[in-house]
Structure formats: structure tokens, C-alpha cells
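U., I forgot to send this yesterday:
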Amino acid sequence: MDSIRSHPIQTVFRSFAACMCVSVLFAFLGCSPPEEPETVIDPGFERITFHEFPHFEDHGDMESLQRAIEQSLLFYSRIPADRTFSLGELTLTADTLRETLELFKALMHQGALDKQTLAEHFHVYRSRAPTESNKSLVTGYFEPILEARLHPDSSFHYPLYGLPPELLTIDLNLFDAERFQGGRLVGRLEGNRVVPFYTREEIDQRGKIVPQQCEIAWIEDPIDGFFLHVQGSGKLHLGNGQYARIGYAGTNGHPYRSIGRYLIDQGVLEREAVSLQTIRGHLRSHPEQRDEVLFYNPSYIFFRWVDEGPVGAINVVLTPNRSIATDLQLHPRGAVAFLETRQPLVDEQGNLLGWEPLHRWVLNQDTGGAIKGVGRTDFFFGSGKGAEGLAGNMNSPGRLYFLVKK
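Result:
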């Protein structure tokens, strides 16, 4: 199920070259930007004219936007200024993207994020989703808060693992950069051969990595552990009022497979009814099916302790209601975008009551194993039960617009 996300899954020969999704508006002459023919940049981005702009009316607070911008600028400060990112036929440097964000930040402080001012300074690109309606799909994710202990007991005996010492990550770019284009291979040694690392079933059912003693904490419920893997990071209550955060450290290299889609294919759940809440409810009411369903997804996430978080795929702290995850092979890392969609209205139990508009400036700071393709967006709602209710029900069409300085 696409609304259930996981953090980056490194599969064999997967390319990690991030395509820079940029916005190209037009030169601003006089009191109105001139109309220009639409420019389509393969494989799925188009430059739009002034009259196709959204209203750019933001429903969020500017303080959170400021925090998210600073995190993306931190990312750009850590990479070479001349590192290039691609969007179709365009090639942009990290320095250009940084300047785009700094200009956007300055206009934000001036209260000048209106269509006319943005048209003077930026080009705008819209992702072209492969659907008749030309709409992208927007889902949601959150940071779970779980009860956990640093030592196992009769209640807390399901482990969360750090990176196993046996796990190997091979950078294929070192062997043939042109052929493998930044791909990575995750596996383990068996004799003198590299073989795939253990699957979820081999780890949780057969205890294949228990001898490696890489447990970092224990939780009460494997269902909660599975959804912690899907979200990729979390906050643990260790007892006595003590909390600690864990973040994504690595993966076993197996592809992500949606258990929501599996339950639909098995005729257990209707497609329209699938959400994090309905999947969890089904697993709790049918414990005899739990392992069969969870092990359908062979992908497995390993964690590390982090001082602050949650931390996204570009190694910066995510901002609730401002950070998004996309397919980073097709969308620009750290870039600013405008999201037009709708979000669920839920009650205290997370039951869906209805929908309301969601229009927000967002920063592209994360990715996920289930987040594939142009225009596919995952919106970060924050931490805890309230965010879970929103994220678990979020599944809506939307549009995503990226900016780049002229």
C-alpha cells in the first residue's frame, strides 16, 4: 500500500543519482509575465505559464517553513557547490539550488510570495503524473512513539536491531561508474561469495542475526515494530519518563512489498478501506495471519540512536507539516516546492470524518521504498497519535510545483 511508507531501500544496481526537479518561469516584463509555450522535459516535468500558477496561498505557519528552509540550506552547505543534479535535459548545480532557496527565504521574510513576485524571480515546473487527470498521489507518514526497554523481559521481548556486523554495502560505482551509475549492493558473505542479506522472515522468525548481538532495544508488539520500520524512525519511551530517538541506519537490501496491497489481493480488505488503521486492526483481530502478512514484505530496516530527529534521507531533521518524501531519483533533494492537495479530518481514534484543503510550501527532504515515480509525494505530519491518525488516512490526488531561480 503506497500510503504505508518505508525509508530508502537500496536494491541491486539501483541508481542513486538524484534528478533535480526545478521550476522555470519566464522573464517578467512590465506588469504581467508574457505567455510562453509549454516546455515538456522528459520524463515527466513541464514548465508552466503564469496563468497556470497555483494561488500559492499557504495554510501553515511561517516559523515551521523557516525551520524547514534552514535544514535544506544545511544540506546544501555539506555538499560541493559544483555537484550537479539533473531534471530531464537540464543540469543544475548545488550552488544554484542553494541560491534559489536563499532568494525564496528573503522573499518570504518580505511577505512577497505572491504570484507576480515569484514570476519575476523563478521558473516553475510541475511534475507530470502518468494519469489522465495529470494529478500526483499524496500520502502521509509520521514518527511513531513506542514503549520500549533497553533490556528484554517477559513483556518487552521483540528486538529492534542496529546494523549487523555481517551486513555488507558495496558501492558498485567504485567498480564501474558508467555501467552501474551509483548503484549499491547490500548482502553478506557466504564463504567467498556475496549473497543477499537475510529477509524479514529469516531475521524475525528464524533469528538469523541473533548471534551478531546487534539489538538496541526491545518492544512489546511486532505489529508496532513493523510499522516503525515502515516509517523509518521513531521515538521510544524507555520508562521512568525517559525518551530516546532512533533513526534509519540501513536496510537488508530487499525490495519493499506492500502488505496493504497483499491484503487487497487476498480479498481481506477493500481497496477503498485500506489505511494504516484498518491494516493494524485486521492484524490484531486475526493474530493467526500476522506472520504471513508481515513476512510478505522481505524488506527490513536497521536503526541507530540519534540526538534529534526524525532525520530524513538527506540527513537533516524533518519539520512537521513542511517536509515531504519523494522519489529522489526524479525529484530535487532539498528543494522548495508548493503542494496542492487535501488532508483528512479525523477523530481522536483516527477515524476518517472528511477532508479539507491542504496548500503548503514544502521542502523535499526524504524518500521511501514505497515512494516511486514522478509526482509521488509523502507528506510528513509529525509525531505521535494525532499525526498517525492523519498520516494513516492520507491518500489523495495533488499537485507539486518546484521553483528554481532564474
